[in-house]
Amino acid sequence: MSEHVRFSGGRAGRANLAWGQRSIYEAMRQAGPASAHYFNLWRVLPMPRGRGPYTVEQVTSAVVALVARHDSLRSRIALREDGHPFQIVSETGWLERQVLAATEQEAEKAAEGLVLDLAARAFDLVEEWPVRIGLITVDDVVRQVGVVLCHTAVDGYAADIVVRDLRQLLLRGSLARPPSQQVLDLVAEQESGVGRNRSERALAHWEAGYRKGPPTMFPDLVAEPGSPRWSKAMLESRALEDAVTIVAARHHMSTATVLLTAVSALIGTITPHETCVITPIVHNRFRPETRDLVTSLSQLGLFTMSSDPDATLAVTLEATLPEAMRAYRHAQYDQLAWEAMVERVSADRAVKVDPSCCFNDMRPVDHSALQESSPGEDAIRTSVTSSRIEWLPGVDHFTCNFCFFVTRQSGILSIGLNADTCRLPQSRMVGLLRAVEELVVESAFRDARPSELEVAP
Q1: Which among 120, 129, 243, 375 is placed 20 to 30 Å from 88, CA to CA?
Q2: CATH superfamily membership of 195-452
Q3: What region holds the Condensation domain (predicted)?
């Protein structure tokens, strides 16, 4: 049974949505109420060792302190008379809490089930504050905490900060250092001359890419819709994790950039375009001010790559690294100005420009760090046989035709794809995931070309 928990503390204020907030707000609005829950973020935190046992009220008090610490967790959205959204940060309010008793053996599984249940409903952006919590108890002692967060308040990076801070509050009772920045301060910075200049440089990069690339990456309906139409497949692969670490170390780049380039190269083998246009979701935590900022700061970057089936992945990585860096650098911009740019370029080209092809690295840790050693070729090839495909719940309506994502499951690297099956049938989805794995594994030990890989029709 759900109950409401009151919170108080922190400052109050009103401001426009930050650029990243406006971006995700618009995506949620386009997805509609039936699919908006797809954007919810959730985390599960086992009770930290070193203190405890923790009662329900002790954990709830830590959550209340957490909400007081971060403006974004006390923010709701309202609409002006002209229909534009803004945010109201409150000093007091309420959070939804559910408490579920379980046995010691069932606690971990019960926590995952409870948090998924809490995440299965869209947030009421006007009436509800953006945090829900679920507590799993064993003999009245809290064993697991599930936290569900609205995407307009946090992105994946910020969700990890929330869990980190909650853990520290449970261990220490307080946090001495304040956040590096708050959302109200961020909005003020973005609306200043510094913010406007940053946005203008980014939009110039976007406009150049939108004028030369294909208007959309998957324009043709090639199959009857699957059920649901937007299906979601995930490949869990220890072999890929080992191989991508080797390739990233060799080329002095992040594993995310390796995977972004690999999937872009493979898209080039299954689409007729000379240029692949893909939009990586960039966390935008490159400055000290944003290190501990809890908000939805992530925005899309624009990565373009010329298709060359004769180039090996090694050659492609060296050639496209500067373009990847430009994509990351220019992922902060005024969302309204971006929308105006898209309309202008679309009008000039007499076609709607929307690549509808994105890349999202969702891993919660610093995955750019390289391992001290990696298994040899035989070990990696053997582990390829243990990789597996899993189908996750999809939706019947979504805003993007092709969403490639990277995450971790049970400590193992996983890559996934959420795609419109009318444009990329399920067999091709599986074929593409397998092809990414094979391309990177082969490239870890010898030159490999995307054209040598077979993507199932």
Answers
A1: 120
A2: Nonribosomal peptide synthetase, condensation domain (3.30.559.30)
A3: 54-334
